[in-house]
Amino acid sequence: MKSFLQLFMFLFYSSFILSQVSQPNIYDKQFMIGIIKVPKTELVTHSISAIGQVWKWEQGLFTTGGIYNNSLVTLGESDTNDVSYWPGFNFNWCYGDPKWSLGLYKVTNSKQTGKYFYIDARDCDFGRALYNPDFFIYFDDSIGTYIFKKPQKGIIEQGAIIRVWDIHNKRPNTTLLQNYWTNALVIVNHYQRPKLIWGPYPSNNLMVSNYNIYRKYGGSQWQLLTSVPADVFEYYDMTVSLSKYLAGTDVSYKVTAVYSNNTENIETMPTNVVTVNVKGQNIENYQSNDFIRTSNFSLEQNFPNPFNPVTLIKFSISDNADVSLKIIDILGNVTKELFNGYIEKGDYSIYFDASGLPSGVYFYSLNMNGYTQTKKMILSK
What is the C-alpha to C-alpha distance for residues 98 and 90, in angstroms, rounded to an integer? Predict the structure, then answer.
């Protein structure tokens, strides 16, 4: 009897230990991606590209560094009724292929390259599989749209951000992601305007009430742009447009978390700073005393002059007003309108990129409430 009991205990503990070290089911920790409405013999490549930092599991920690880009190829359309036939990106960096790391990823396909969405998998609970993480998405080539199959259903809007914690209605956790807050903020191009994306402040003890978003133009001072609730992790800045050329003004952003200690609101250290270049008509407000104002406004000589092909124009207005700034050629034709809109009183600068214009004499004209100042500039290529 004693020998039988010893044998039973040995078999029990052996099976328990083996179950702990065995590989997880292949479907654990997977984001499954497929496509429909394509020929049965067509090869389609699905790709993920990381934006910002990623994290991999290493000796009990999620350390920075890991897989930033990956892809897989599907043959013909996926069977949306039987997910066992689907290909998939494996969130588990220890098993499966292709595998990837926790991070923010852009998802695209080779069939319609302009269609995309984002997966935000920066959640260490998700990485440790404390809940069933599987989800299934397919691309419908006939309508050019990504669609959720499981666990939820519905169309995914172009450029949308799908967060793994929202999929399973779980509170996000970033506390185990090494140096997360100093890598949390990323910026993406959304219809030629900057969209900021971050995630939850890494603390289990602080009850964050909101996030503050700060912005600055060029070398100006940081200013509070807006605040968003604690469950919001993105902001779309519609007040500036991104430039394809480095001839506009750099605009920078950072985010802080705000929490209360029962007596006062406290602001955390900021995230990393992200910077993009915005078009010339998005102007920079700055403090300067290097030119004399008139009673209403003043226009400074551009610098450098002559220039090739970019020059800086500074001006000042003494009252809030509708202002326009135009470039005029030697024949009096308007070749470009750098700015036209309402701005507050102050000192401003704006870059002019003349890459598409021939060499010669040009004029720049500032108009405010019917009053105009004009100065000459020389483009020398």
Answer: 6
**325 near 337, Cβ under 8 Å?**
yes
Which of these, 84, 167, 176, lies nearest to 132 by C-alpha position?
A: 167
Give the phi and the psi of residue 3 in degrees, each rounded to 5.
Answer: -65, -40
Give percent above pLDDT 90 in the chain: 32
Report cis status (omega within 30 of 0) of the bond before 309.
Answer: yes
Regarding predicted confidence, which is higher, 347 or 38?
Answer: 38
**Eight-state DSSP code of residue 84:** G
Backbone angles phi, psi at 291, to 5 degrees: -150, 155
pTM recorded for the entire structure: 0.66
Q: What is the pLDDT of residues 164-221, one digit of tens each?
A: 888 878 888 899 899 999 999 999 988 778 899 999 999 888 889 999 999 988 778 8
Domains in the chain (CATH in brackets) are 30-167 (no CATH), 181-278 (2.60.40.10), 284-379 (2.60.40.1930)
Q: How far apart are CA 335 and CA 354, in angstroms?
A: 10
Structure tokens given for 256: 């802080």
Structure tokens at 286: 């700055």
Tally: H helices and E strands in the chain? 3, 28
Distance CA 333, CA 238 (A): 31
Confirm if 90 and 96 have CB atoms less than 8 A apart: yes
3-class SS shares of the chain: helix, strand, coil, % to 5: 10, 45, 45
Provide the 3-class DSSP secondary structure of residue 10: helix
Looking at the predicted structure, is the pLDDT value of residue 269 above 80? yes
Interacting residues of 183 by C-beta distance below 8 A, sequence separation 6+: 52, 53, 64, 271, 272
Q: Which residues contact 25 (CB under 8 A, 6 or more apart)?
A: none
Q: Which of 243, 213, 244 is nearest to 226 (CA)?
A: 213
pLDDT digits (tens, 9 = 90+) for 353-370: 887 889 999 999 988 877
**210: its two tokens:** 């909101």
Round to whole Å and give the CA distance between 194 and 135.
28
Residue 177 is classified by DSSP as B
The lowest-confidence range among 41-50, 65-74, 205-214 is 65-74
pLDDT category at 295 given cuts 50, 70, 90 is very low
